[in-house]
Amino acid sequence: MTVTKNPLRDGWTIIVKRDCATCVMVVPVIARLARELPSLTVYTQDDPTFPEGLVSVSDLDLAASWHADIDTVPTLIFRANGVETKRTFGWLRSEWRELTGIADLGSELPEFRPGCGSMSVDPDVVDKLRVRFGGEILHARRIDIAAAEDEFEAMFSRGLTDGLPVVPPTPERVMRMLSGTSRAPQEVVAIAPPDLVELTVEKIAINAVMAGCLPEYLPWVIAAVEAVCTDEYNMHGVLATTMPVAPVIICNGPGTRAIGMNSGVNVLGQGNRANLTIGRAVQLIIRNVGGGRPGEVDRAAHGHPGKLSFCFAEDETGSPFDSLSVSRGFDKSQNTVTVFTGEGPRCVVDQLAREPEQLAQSLAACLRTVHHPKLPFAFDAVLVLGPEHARVFAQANWSRERVLQEIHTRLQMPGSEIVRGAGGMAEGVQEAFKDATLPKFRPGGLLLVHAGGLAGLFSSIIGGWVNGSAGSDPVTKLVTR
Amino acid sequence: MSNRVILDPTSEKKMVSRELLARPKTITGQTIGLLDISKARGDVFLNQLESRLTTAGAKVLRFRKPTFTKPAPVDLRHEIATKCTLVIEALAD
User: What is the ipTM of this complex?
Assistant: First the structure.
């Protein structure tokens, strides 16, 4: 029977394995301690007959080693009243003497020998141990995959994927994923639309496994999910709309570099695990937990490929501007995700502008076409400014605010041009606005992000969706471990 | 065999399906709620419906969602349910 609690008792404990030269070397020391310390218990990880001639307790299931958090063998521990008060590992003669109070302990041995890795931290077994000894924290229903069933096909046939294969979320993988956060597995992070169900850290971790995330990505997934499940973001509406939009996740802070996110070449494309799997995990969570599936609550007429995943990092180290998150009130040392409801990106080509005014003019002309060149105010946009375009502004000492202001100035649209029927197009604003001047974007409705490869005088525009309280507002959340 | 158990990634909830109520035999005497979801030109459709339903002997009450992008607030749903015998919602798309 598997021991699920810490079996260590008060008094002295030594944990060893035969397959460790240092453990073998200290056998005479252990024999002396067994004579002089009546409370001593010896646990053996790999061979219950070791050390020969001494009574030892088998720790073949590694329960004692796991619960005592043993990294190295040999380890010597003293416990009193249920609390560990002394520990040393490997062989450092002076420490063993000091701990045991035996002044001539191990005189025949060298002063120091490093120990060996504990079997309980062997990468091949650690995931299984985590489930065996900590698996009761998992509450999700367990699904048995029949022996003749292909586990990848099983995920498809149960409707659990986004159309691509997913990593089967075994208890071992989910426990490993949960090691990426300090939050409790049953903590409710958000109420997930459209079914309005409680979304736990465990369910997020399961879907993060399926998406292919590493544990260090999990805090980013959690923050992004928190953000899209707010009333301001309105994930229900983003799903239900017939427009082709989905969460665009923009990551900021030093953590983006720590987890290896891409903010450079091909930033909005394929090839980077963190970018792709964080965005994919958010979509899988909304699909599987929230119940938002295409053709059901998701009513998009066309959708776009970024509905599989749309997540990237801002290039902060190469940027001449403050970052997006700083512009939204956060410190540059903080890790954040900003979620924006966006369509697929499109390219702005201007390879000739060397003056900032010329480039602002080009960007404004292209931004005007977001959703329709005659529709003002209703849709936000993200401008992903490529480094070569940013350089044109930086050389003229234009700040982020100046760039945005110059673009806004160029996007004041005369009502006569955008009224219904003007230009032969039925689409447009009502007749009442024909004498007004209307801005393409509401204040704050254009978000600037610096990202992309170093070569190419291009930028990208990500058009938004109905903005404000009637639709969706961008939401920024802190990423915390 | 390893990896033969997976954890359920869904909410583990079963959706309840409800049967439609019996269709009314006549609209005369019914109190009919017309719900405008606040999308463009939904009012054009509902104005026309109101005219025809009133002519046919129904009492018509008009309701409006704050925005078409979010579900109707609970209070609004409750009000419609308590005041009306029928409801017609105008989807603009």
Answer: 0.85
